[in-house]
Amino acid sequence: MAQTKQKRFLIRTLILTVLAVAIIYTIYNNATKDKFEVLGVGDEAPDFTLVDLNGEEHRLSDYKGQGVFLNFWGTWCKPCAKEMPAMDRQYEVFKDQGVQILAVNIAQSNFEVERFADQYGLDFPIVIDKTKSVMEAYNIDPLPTTLLINPDGEIEKIVRGEMTEQDIALFMEQIRPE
Amino acid sequence: MTLVSISGNLLFVAFICYLIATLFFGGAVKGSKPETSDSEKRWGRIGIIVTIVGFIANLAYFITRWIAAGHAPVSNLFEFTTAFGMMVVGAFILIYFIYRTPSLGLFALPIAIIIIGFASMFPRDINPLIPALKSYWLTVHVITAALGEAILAISAVAGLIYLLKNVDVTKRSKQSFWLEAVMFTLVLTLGFVASTTTFSVMDYEAKFSYVDKEQKDQEITYNTPPIFGMNEYKALTPGTMTPLAEMPPLVNAKKLTTVTWSLLFGVVLYGLIRLIIRKPIAAVLKPFAQKANSQLMDEIGYRAVSIGFPVFTLGALIFAMIWAQEAWSRFWGWDPKEVWALITWLFYAAFLHLRLSRGWHGEKSAWLAVIGFIIIMFNLIAVNLIIAGLHSYA
Amino acid sequence: MNNIICACGHENPEGTVLCGNCGRPLTKEAKDLKLADMRYEGSARRSQTYNKSIIDKIWNFFSSVKIGVTIIIMILVAAAIGTILPQVLYVPASTEADIAAYYERVYGTFGKIYYELGLSDLYGSWWFQTLIGMLGISLIVASLDRFIPLYNSLKKQRTRRHESFMKRQRLFALGESVGQETLTKSEAKLKELRYDVKREDGALLAEKGRFSRWGPYVNHVGLIIFLFGVMLRALPGFYVDETMWIREGETRAIPEAPGYYLESKDFILETYDKEQADEVFGDAIERVGTIASNYQTDVVLYKKPESALPGQTENLEEVKKESIQVNKPLKFDGFAVYQMDFRLDELKTMHFVLSNKATGESLGDLAIDLVNPETTYDLGNGSSVKLLGYYPDFSGFENGEPQTKSPVPNNPAFLVRMTTPETPKGETSFVAIKQTVEPLGENAYKLEFQNVDTRDVSGLTIRKDKTLWILALGGLIFMIGVAQGSYFNHRRIWIHETKDGQFAVAAHTNKNWFAIKKELDQVTEAAQLPLYKDQQDSESQELKKDGEKSS
Question: Which residue spans traverse the membrane (chain C) (predicted)?
Answer without folding.
Answer: 67-85, 126-148, 217-239, 468-488
